[in-house]
Amino acid sequence: MNKKKSFSMLLTVVLIIMSFFPTFVMAESGSASKVDKHTQNAGNAGGSSVSIPQLSPAQPGTLKKCEALASFDFTRTTITKAELVPDGALSNGGQPVGAHCLIQGKMNERVSPVDGQTYAIGFEMRLPVDWAGRFLYQANGGLDGVVVPALGSITGGQLENGLQMGFAVLSSDAGHNGAQNPLFGLDPQARLDYGYQAVGTLTPMAKSLIEAAYGRKPDRSYIAGGSNGGRHTMVAASRYADQYDGFLAVAPGFNLPKAAVAQLWGAQQWAKVASTKDNLETALPPVERQVLAQAILDRCDGLDRLVDGMVQDSNRCQKVFNVERDVPTCVVERDGTCLTEEQKRVVEDVFAGARTSSGEALYSSFPFDPGVVQSGWASWKFSSSVGPRDPVSVGFVFSTPPENPKMLENTLGYALNFNVDTQAGMIYKFNELYTESAMEFMTPPNPTNLDTVRNSGAKMIVVHGTSDGVFSPDDTARWYDELEANYQNKAEEFARYFEVPGMGHVRGGPATDQFDGLGALINWVEYGKAPDRITATARGKGNPGGVNLDVPSTWAPDRSRPLCPYPLVARYTKGDPEVASSFQCKPSSGGSELNQ
Fold first, then answer.
1. Has residue 105 got a pLDDT over 50?
2. DSSP characters for 318-370?
3. Residue 389 above 70 pLDDT?
4. In Å, what is the CA distance from 223 to each residue of 68, 69, 101?
5. Based on C-alpha coordinates, what's the Rg of the chain?
6. Same domain, 491 and 509
7. Which of 73-77, 114-118, 165-169, 587-591 bottoms out in mean pLDDT, i.e. has the lowest?
8. What's the pLDDT tens digit per position in 486-508?
9. Which among 211, 388, 395, 397 could disulfide-bond with 185, CB atoms 3.0 to 4.6 Å apart, if both were Cys?
10. 250 and 147 share one domain
11. pTM
12. What is the SS3 assignment for 180?
């Protein structure tokens, strides 16, 4: 073999070897290096491996100025307040909140050419004197419209909020004020701000203000929220992934327009068995919800090898529980110990998910869970579906064109007469004035493509209660299944989903709903400690973060359970049944380990 041919073969071998070692650019954020030398491999949608950077920890800092921030200069931004809040002026969970700088302001003030209203993106920031080097966008819920205190409170009974953890925290009204709810939906730009643009507008401003206050930008940036705030978070992971290192979404309504339409459809189903049409809770009042919950427990409570008033293995429960067979049937009339055949049909229909008259699915199914006993579940199913939330959201914010404001005079009538066959499609409509449909401006553009999150070393944690009355955990589980498929079962290397048995919407229910999601996210993002389980505690009597009245008196007030990364479930092994250490995260008994 001649030398020229030998060299050619050697070069070919070298090039083949090099192809297995892709490179990545090491960016910087603030004073901390964006990544360190440690990496891990993960599969992408195409099947090749990429290097996932391990981000370095945030470094602490000290507030350098406060009142002087009143003159902070940023495009179309006005600061209306800049004052120092002394140590202990606020408290959370009985613990004082440290000294911090309170900033209030607004961005992009304008007069709408459509409705003549003056709009602006209102915001508040709280900057701790003793700073952890981190920024937290506190994404708020509902229709927004209110600048809630920027304390970094995301979940129920949070013992230590973001501000106490040293975050510089931002809160906003997403581009409209409370007086403009829900008619802000008449203004096209207000719709877009509410959907996603407020986050995109506020984020660079907040980082610049942090730089002005501390002398450097944040080393690590996080966005977190529950409900609509969870939706904001998931949208940010799709649209603004390069701006954040960590995403915590609790009970995310990432298909919010679909869920709102499903609520109207659900109201029509409940009306079929409600004894009083203007009080839908008469379709399934507390005593009858208890009958349903007990039937679920009787069939599913012991699936995790412990009878404790909780259904940990929800996946298996859906396969073994049957409404017709397991719920007592009224022989003569409703007496609080049974459900009528018609009630059973309605319950089955509602939990199976909203659909058109031809059977086309409009939204997701819901899992059967004993958390239906809680008042929060009833509020979503029977009140919000006909009152101040869903009809107005569908009519004014999600439909193109929006409804006539006179609809506000009779939201019950609008809900009960909403034609899903002809009107549900309005959430997909757009025109010359409303250039993006609700399903465009409200949802993540491509929720199962998180390449930017993964490739930058960022991480995502999603948490959902199995008894959420408005946004279905089945929809969230479906999203995660599709994410896993897209990343060849390696999505867990950058995104994990946790279900909370019994928990209602964001919080509450007969559940262990108190957990440190932010702490788990920080440990994963900055220290590489992936959350194989998150310990959650009940908020029973004496809980410093606030008592959850749905916690049964038969439980230890501080009962703890592990939240397991989906699709694993908590299974009792041995030891004290009231503590999380007595449980392990195992596959559902409805899966391949059916007999274990």
1. yes
2. HHH--HHHHSPBPSSS--SS-B-HHHHHHHHHHHH--B-TT--B-S------G
3. yes
4. 27, 23, 20
5. 25
6. yes
7. 587-591
8. 999 999 999 999 999 999 999 99
9. 397
10. yes
11. 0.91
12. helix
